[in-house]
Design brief:
By secondary structure, this protein is α/β, with parallel strands linked by helices. It contains 8 helices and 12 strands. It has helices at residues 26-35, 67-74, 96-114, 130-138, 173-181, 199-203, 207-217, 228-238, and strands spanning 3-6, 13-20, 40-44, 80-83, 166-167, 190-196, 223-225, 242-243, 249-251, 258-262, 265-269, 274-276. Helix 3 crosses helix 4 (130-138). The model has no long low-confidence stretch (mean pLDDT 96).
Length: 284
């Protein structure tokens, strides 16, 4: 029997964004995202916020925000804040103990600033190795984004090695966006994951790229717009469903309402609910 995960409300498509470093241009990016109903994750280096009152040279694109700007930009924004290393180091070049310190200090500081529990991350410079992955797991990190482009819409199989669909400067960005928006896939769920640094839009003077992308994919009723951690938590909940041996009795032990499709019919399963599938052939 073939069972396919569906996102909340039975949708088969989801979209998320991931942007790094906590820079002034994040303010404009968030405005564009909100206008188009998009959500995403901003990965912050809480050990190297700019000094209050910092004045940058004219024309400098990468302008890190001070603490006051970080708080005013991301507090109550609806966006996720996540770990990016306390000082943006090359984690794979550090001993495991110092790697763990970079992760724990950043996570603890972000939790103190924003409340809640910070469990997401993006690798500084996109670099990592197996030791780093194991450290992240021990530090309670639920996922970490790489910089490896897939140009695909697959959900992650290993959340601690989460490869995005593409960077916003990918030459096929709008081809991929059009393919995603017009997809009528009936089986595997699809996820578009865009990443980058918002200061690149200033550096290349191409804010029109993200504006056009957001307009092309945003404010649609057939796409679930979510932060990185929203998506990971939902996928983990789906993978926690319990099945009888023939697969026709399904129990949801999680706190999430889970959606899935069997034989062309979409079902929802509330927290604690058990569903008996009837009239379903085992070969469907």
């Amino acid at each position: 029997m073939r069972i396919y995960m569906r996102f909340p409300n039975g949708l088969h498509k989801a979209l998320t964004l991931s942007y790094d470093d906590g820079v002034e241009t994040d303010i404009r990016l968030i405005q564009i995202m909100k206008k188009n109903g998009l959500f995403g994750t901003f990965n912050l280096n809480s050990g190297i916020f700019a000094t209050e009152g910092t004045v940058y040279p004219e024309g400098q694109a990468q302008r890190r925000m001070p603490l006051s700007g970080i708080l005013s930009t991301f507090s109550d924004s609806g966006m996720e804040v996540a770990v990016h290393g306390y000082t943006h180091p090359y984690l794979e070049q550090m001993p495991a103990s110092l790697c763990a310190l970079e992760i724990v200090r950043d996570r603890e500081h972000l939790e103190e600033l924003f409340g809640g529990i910070v469990r997401g991350m993006a690798y500084p410079y996109g670099t990592y190795n197996d030791t780093v992955v194991n450290v992240l797991r021990d530090c309670g990190i639920a996922y970490s984004r790489t910089t490896k482009t897939t140009e695909k819409f697959t959900v992650p199989t290993d959340p601690l090695r989460w490869d995005p669909t593409c960077h916003h400067n990918n030459p096929r960005l709008f081809e991929l966006a059009d393919k995603f928006v017009n997809s009528k896939a009936a089986r595997a769920p699809e996820l578009f994951y865009l990443w980058g640094h918002s200061y690149e839009f200033d550096g290349k003077n191409n804010w029109d790229v993200i504006e056009k992308f957001a307009e092309a994919v945003g404010n649609r009723s057939d796409i679930w717009y979510a932060t990185n951690i929203d998506i990971i938590d939902y996928i983990n909940a789906y993978r926690s469903l319990r099945y009888s041996m023939n697969g026709k009795r399904i129990n949801n032990p999680t706190a999430y309402t889970i959606w899935f499709e069997v034989a062309g019919q979409v079902h929802s399963l509330a927290p604690g609910e058990t569903l008996e599938l009837t009239g379903v052939d085992g070969n469907v």
